Amino acid sequence: MTRHERRPSRPTQADIARLAGVSQPTVSLVLGGNKAGVALSDETRQRVLDAAESLGYVPDPIARRLSRRTNNLLGLYTFTATFPTDVQHSYYPFLVGVEEEAAAQGYDLLLFTSSGAYEGATDVLNRVRLADGCLFLGRHVPEKAMGRFLDDGYPLVYIGRHDELGERLPYVGADYVSASADVVRRLAELGHRHLAYVREKDDAPASADREAGLRSAVADTGVRADVVRTDGGDVDTARLRSWLADGVTAIVAEETDTDIAVTAVESAARAGGLRCPDDFSLALLGDRVGRSPGLPALSGFAIPRREMGRAAVRMLTGLIAGEPEARIRQILGCHPLAGETVGAPPRPPEH
Amino acid sequence: MTRHERRPSRPTQADIARLAGVSQPTVSLVLGGNKAGVALSDETRQRVLDAAESLGYVPDPIARRLSRRTNNLLGLYTFTATFPTDVQHSYYPFLVGVEEEAAAQGYDLLLFTSSGAYEGATDVLNRVRLADGCLFLGRHVPEKAMGRFLDDGYPLVYIGRHDELGERLPYVGADYVSASADVVRRLAELGHRHLAYVREKDDAPASADREAGLRSAVADTGVRADVVRTDGGDVDTARLRSWLADGVTAIVAEETDTDIAVTAVESAARAGGLRCPDDFSLALLGDRVGRSPGLPALSGFAIPRREMGRAAVRMLTGLIAGEPEARIRQILGCHPLAGETVGAPPRPPEH
DNA sequence: GGTTCCCGCTAATCCGTATTAGTAAGGGGA
DNA sequence: TCCCCTTACTAATACGGATTAGCGGGAACC
Hints:
The structure is a homodimer.
Chain A: H1 13-20, H2 24-31, H3 42-55, H4 61-68, E1 73-78, H5 92-104, E2 108-113, H6 122-126, E3 133-137, H7 143-151, E4 156-159, E5 171-174, H8 176-190, E6 194-200, H9 205-221, E7 224-230, H10 237-245, E8 250-254, H11 260-272, E9 281-285, E10 300-302, H12 305-320, E11 329-332, E12 335-337
Parallel strand pairs in A: 1-2, 1-3, 3-4, 4-5, 5-11, 6-7, 6-8, 8-9
Antiparallel strand pairs in A: 10-12
Helix pairs in contact in A: 1-2, 1-3, 5-12, 8-9, 10-11
Chain A binds a DNA duplex through helix 2 and helix 4.
GO molecular function, one term (chains A, B): transcription cis-regulatory region binding
Protein name (chains A, B): LacI family transcriptional regulator
InterPro entries (chains A, B): HTH_LacI (IPR000843), LacI/GalR-like_sensor (IPR046335), Lambda_DNA-bd_dom_sf (IPR010982), Peripla_BP_I (IPR028082)
């Protein structure tokens, strides 16, 4: 008795059927456009339409989707908050692209976040199954959960290159390798012979790609590059000065969603009264989203985040549609950013 | 036969039942917490739980919604893109608050947008019924659709004050009236006697409130205020100069999501080489989200967007829970922003 | 006059989960 | 031994709509 007391609810097809003196399926056929081509007299059709009109019928999207077994929802899973407090956050341009393309394809977006959830909470990850497919945005891949999704044939796409699951994980990435190599080459052309590369301690494909590009250009150009891993705390003014004393003329910093590396270098420089590119050149392997008012434009490369978001949605909807030969991995190119923080070395290199 | 070939779908309770050797309702009881208190042996319960775990079961929100009418989903409907291309967009801080509070209350967020949809497509709005309740963010209220939601008892909350549907529409707004009056009073105290108020042509409660506050302060202080409605194109340097020639010493601009009014004034000033507050004072009835690097901090007031987002979620979850005496309308206070664009009038007023 | 065909519609069923009524099995008491 | 009461489930059904098989009746054809 309990649940049925909720009587004054919206009119259903059954109500229309009763009023028009037909059956519910007939109503469904009339209102649903009758794609199956079932024969229906115009008179019946009209009675149904009139009844629907007079009752103010609105189809229930939930019921409709239950029988369609698809809900026109794309999941978007971010391992940190989707709307970070810091507006400058580098996720934002991805979201712009994702939303644009999702809207264009008629999908709505379902936001999930594991921020605040227990580590490795598999229920949280499993919740994404309620979408028809899901995009993932994050530096790392929870291999067990993702492996299971793949095994089950659940459509998913990572934003960012990831090889944690071999060739199985679909992604849309950016070509950090070439772009990073280009940054080093530009420095070499300006005369820099000794670099420090500051990166996060943490390992991820995004880091590996940048370092690979850097190393290949280092090998090509014959410059020297010292790799420094930091968690931010251990790069201070003293350390910065000691590098410069050692002959380092340019610092290359990894870009990540937290920007730990470049932030540490910038603070150390500011604290020590050092300026770029007068005292040393500073290049970022990436870009800074929504550059902050006070800070100079960093030299580096632009990541096509918006286009990556769009491409990821296209790949995902392709997977959902079960396209036979869907391209599962895609790498988009970056383009160089001149910026204001790179110049010739303070002292011309000896030769 | 056709529709059932689509086999590799998500596991259902029926699959679990088969694996555990029980019936589907038993699975539902075990997984649903068995609130009815049906007797179940621990052994059976465990078998079901194990089976569910091993299949990676996730309840289908649509089916659940159809029968239980709740699925832990909050809708967020924006009448423009949710992630605007312009990162500075004023919606963003609302979203931060909404996401925070939704996460805190254990709800996932379902993003809907009518951007790109035909005008007045009511089906588009009906999609939101998939969620347990929905937040709406926009300058206007599609009265017919919202009236229908209210009639049906569908829980919804507007972010922003709206009286289009009388007392029926729940909202969380900001006190633009007092805040706008304060801005005018501060100008009056500085000696300004003649203002121009630049606002959008478009009418909305957010505009009406600001204008009401302005008018009340104008009446109190005896200053003169000319109201100018613009769509942006018709405010140029010549017009600006003619105002100043008429004795206007301060311009007050409405803030909206597009910021048409203030942008027009600023461009006109820049083009004419006019500076604030030296040539005239410029106050905004609101604030500028993520102030742009080049532009000075505008004088105005801060809208507690993040807290509004949180409050709206709290109100909505209250409505969903069917709280008997839920407060349906809430107004949060704004606080003044000194900024750099308001000062004493260029020439002391005659007396 | 019987068979075939077509028209116009409905019965039956499905989607996945929740809920309630009811039943089979086992134990205890008289 | 019969009855009743638990215990532990399952059958039946609802939710609202989509889909498909099938049925009754009349017209056309042989």
